[in-house]
Amino acid sequence: MHDPALTRRDFLATAAGAALAAPAPRAAAAPQAGKIPLGFDNFSVRAFGWKAPRLIDYAAELKADILLMSDLDVYESMDEAYLSDLRKRAADKGLALQAGSLSICPTSKRFKDTHGTAEEHLRLIIRIARAIGSPVARCVLGSAEDRKGEGGITPHIKGTVAVCRAVRSYALDCGVKIAIENHAGDLTAHELAGLIEEAGRDFVGATMDSGNATWTLEDPLRNLEILGPYAVTTGMRDSMVWETPEGAMVQWTAIGDGCVDFKAYAARFAQLCPGVAFILEIIAGLQRPFPFKDPAFMAPYADVPRAEIDRFAALAKRGRPIEARKPPADKDKKLADQEFQREQLERSMRYCRETLGLGLR
Hints:
CATH topology of the domain at 8-13 and 28-236 and 259-284: TIM Barrel
CATH superfamily of the domain at 8-13 and 28-236 and 259-284: Divalent-metal-dependent TIM barrel enzymes
Order of helices and strands: HEHEHEHEHHEHEHHEEEHEEHHH
Distance between the termini: 45 Å
Largest sheet: 8 strands, parallel
Number of strands: 11
Low-confidence stretches: 1-34
Helix content: 40-55%
Shape: globular
Structural class: alpha/beta
Strand content: 15-25%
Strand order of the largest sheet: 7-6-5-4-3-2-1-10
CATH class of the domain at 8-13 and 28-236 and 259-284: Alpha Beta
Radius of gyration: 19 Å
């Protein structure tokens, strides 16, 4: 049972212990071509506003193995017949589907009651996942803002664990695993590993996001070592991280455009995450400062081990400044965003296939 008196530091210790209990690292080897499914998250092409049928057709055009539809707005209906038709449409095109949504944490600033209570929302995601043939129900706790309140992130972790436990039987009956993402700076790898252990690994796993790792002051390769054994799906993009007088600047990029060694990442991913899909969630062009030398900024990260910050600082030393994206002034913004997002995703897909050897077809 979850101890309500568990301190934040105790929780981090539990998470660290869980991570240390993971399989010991082995020497990296190149991933076997054709053995890791390759796909993308519809958020990569969000500017189009496509509904599920068009997203399925586009994924088929790209010869993706898997399409993760990470929000509920893509569905024109949530009736079983409609969802069953989506599943068949995808299967006819040789495509697997994954389902997802956002916050299931009732205390998070990101939680919205559009779909009822947090428990009702999670049950809905699981139902949709079962109907479209998804083995996972991707969801999130919240964002970095949730680290800043009283008690830090720990009360929100407790709330998320409680919601997950409330639907355990339903998830197991549906054959769907709840896949919680390290999202927008909310959870470090240690914290997410601890949350999963506390909720129950039999029905909860991780949506491992390489880009979001840099928003919790982590080297994505280190994040992979901790979360890889828990991953049931993913959200992948590169990051360029470089030094600033105050700490570091982070800009997410297409795969291959940042300073993360994705050749090493893909090789280690193949070892730690057998059968897990490599799902691209490309979000590029935005810069965010991380002034980790400022004690005030670091207050919400007081329990993050110094060694993790040092690894992040070392990553920043390998990066270089790049320009933030500026949409062309002479082009319609929506059209410019669509063209940019499509180019970034499709180039990332090519890099993953041609350079990293990923994909089943």
